[in-house]
Amino acid sequence: MRATFKQLHTFILILCLLLSFGPATYAQAQDGIPASATPVTIRHFNEQELQKLKASKDFEYFEEVKPDQNFLERAWSGFKKWLRKIFYTSKSGPVWEYLLYAALVAGIILIIIRLLGMDTGNLFGKKTEISDMPYQVYEENIHEMDMKALIEEAVQQRDFRKAIRLHYLQSLKHLTDRGFILWRPGKTNRSYISEIKSQELRREFEQLTSMFEYVWYGGAALGDELFASARAEFILFDKQLNQYA
Amino acid sequence: MEEEVLITAQENKTDYSALREATNRIKAELRQVIVGQESLIELLLVAMLAEGHVLIEGVPGIAKTLTAKLLARTVQVDFSRIQFTPDLMPSDVLGTSVFHPGTVTFDYKRGPIFANIVLIDEINRAPAKTQASLFEVMEEQHVTHDGEVYKLSSPFVVLATQNPIEQEGTYRLPEAQLDRFMFKVLVDYPSLEEEIAILELQHNGNKLKRDLDCVQPVLSANELVALREAVQQVHLDKKLLEYIAQIVGETRTNKSLYLGASPRASIALLNSSKALAALRGRGFVTPEDVQELASVVLRHRILLTPEREMEGLTADDIIKQIIQKIEVPR
Prior knowledge:
The complex is a heterodimer of chains A (245) and B (330).
Chain A: H1 2-29, H2 47-55, H3 71-87, H4 95-116, H5 147-156, H6 160-177, H7 189-195, H8 199-216, H9 224-244
Chain B: H1 2-11, H2 17-31, H3 38-49, E1 54-57, H4 64-74, E2 75-76, E3 79-83, H5 90-94, E4 95-100, E5 105-110, E6 117-121, H6 128-132, H7 134-140, E7 142-145, E8 148-151, E9 157-162, H8 175-178, E10 183-186, H9 192-203, H10 207-214, E11 219-220, H11 221-232, H12 238-253, E12 257-259, H13 263-279, H14 287-298, E13 303-304, H15 306-310, H16 315-325
């Protein structure tokens, strides 16, 4: 009962509001604009001027707007067009294009590796044996030394230790020349011994090495007799080398 | 200089057969229990003769501790073992002052470091604070506590074991401490034959445990000191001094290395080369001795640049490169 009463009130309120707009609308209809007495002159567009304006780019509102590209995109797009122009033919198909992409990626990777100074040998699981060291090392090239003259000079000066050393270096040179060992500055005497395949030759060179080490590293003093004996062994070894060659 | 060398050589008539005999006796005792690990045993003996400390690194279960423990047993000296744990304090190692209510004074109670041979097991499980407590004693052989200096008796050798840093619950040792170890020895798994021999020993009625007691002292402390003095007499030519300096010097200028070796490394290489020569019955050092020990002396003292580490190179690779490049003096 109470709800019905509320609905009726709402209806009367809306009705009153609608009826209140009626007189205002009627009042506006009374105010009209008076008709003009001046005759109307019809003007036409200048056809030439119209065509001229139509042709002008300033008024071309329907031009196709391309998306903005940065410098790299434009360069890449240009590069692709250039590649297509050179390599792409109806016969080759897209295979060439894929190969070119692969070559391009490989080139970029190599440049990055180069810039970082990385060792490429390690990329494939192989460790580089020797890398360039940023220093100069002292090296004595046995192949450039005049051994005979130096030995004679040492003997004349009675510097027997030096003479033994030179004899040993000469033996190393002969072993290298005949391919028994591979000369490397960082190798030790024992490394060279292990490189010699012939058992007999290896044993003989081992004896010479022991003698050289005792004299040179051990600082042993040599008299005339001992030196003569040691020298004879070196000369004999050098002669025997020819038999094995 | 040349004359000096000759005089040294003539005077250098020390007989190293006694030294070889003594070390062979130690090796024989150890071989009763230890299967393989020849290189480790030899390096431990070299370090003992050269008055150096040794860091032994390897995965668990490859007889690192056992070897060190047995080596200590072969020499008749005081031995102590310290198990390094994350909660170990410096006072647990060096000792501490204890209050005596009767005399109303503090007395210094010496820690386990006061021994001739100290085995520090799993050294890298203790934090830097405890590691730092070893700096003074390892280098200077004395402990300073409450303004008092307590000297350790000679010989004093620290044998420390550690698991690789990649293992769970380990710390990286400080560079200053690593530098105090003469050698860092890497212990690998035994070969197939060695493994079979180990299993046979175990299979034959748990023989290993009985043999631990069978290992007897074969060298007294005085004998060890005498052998050390003999090692000092080993001749080392000036050319080899330069060679050692060149090798160590290159570690400081090499572009692959972030940290080079210290002069302590040069001294360690020199002393250990002399000990190795003596161990092999020679009265003089050869370049082979230097080359053979270069890796164990230098590998823990150098740090690789991040680029070289990323390439998979190790300290041993760089040391090998340096050795290959420097001409052997002859």
